[in-house]
Amino acid sequence: MKFRTALMALAACGISFSTLADVKLDLPYQADLVLVNGVEQDGNDTLTLPNGVNQFAFTYIDSLRENGDDYLYKSDVIIVKFDASDEALKLDLPKLRTAQDARKFNKSPQLALVAANGEKIDFEQDKLIKSGLQFGRDFEKEIAVYNQSGKAAAVATTAAVAATAAVPTTLPATAAPAATSPKPPVDQQQTRNVAENMLNYWYEQADEATRARFKAKINQE
């Protein structure tokens, strides 16, 4: 109960979970963000993410040349899931120069996550595919469905964190199992650990007034 109330109190104090620290991810100019941990986002600014499992989705956008003409290429939405702590990473993408390069990339995207020491870290990737018209897509809804699919780049933490941030007064059912429930699966336990790290981090960053409001919110339960 206290753990749930603490999450709600952080949200009530206006603290955003999407800006948590410890993992820095630099993105190349071709990567246009679509989602970060279940929340819609665009651009390609450097991401600051919590330690542990993270998920982001992006499209590859760049100007290509074919038959003497330039055109704008945009890939399918690519999902990436990785697990890292206290790292400075960068997303490496190949330079696509021709329409043939683009077709090959769209069929089988080649990318890498590289640490500051040059070491490549493990990750899972997949695509967020929607048939039919692509206008007006609800990416947050799509990734929530995807994350329940058990596919390669699916995560449990994204849905829980996004739901907590969007609706502070509602606790996701998977975030706080009842005392009589079986031991939570690894993904659910991981969600709780990530959230606990979030609580600790933001409490340390808060000023005294925010801490006081935070404590008062917890003590109301």
Automatic annotation (TrEMBL):
Tell me, what's a Pfam family for it? DUF2057
Report keywords, A-Z: Signal
What is the residue range of the signal peptide feature?
Answer: 1-21
UniProt key word Hydrolase: no
User: Which residues span the membrane?
Assistant: none
Per the record, the coiled-coil ranges are none
Question: Its domain of life?
Answer: Bacteria
Record family assignment: Belongs to the UPF0319 family.
From the Swiss-Prot or TrEMBL record, give the protein name.
Answer: UPF0319 protein C9J01_22845
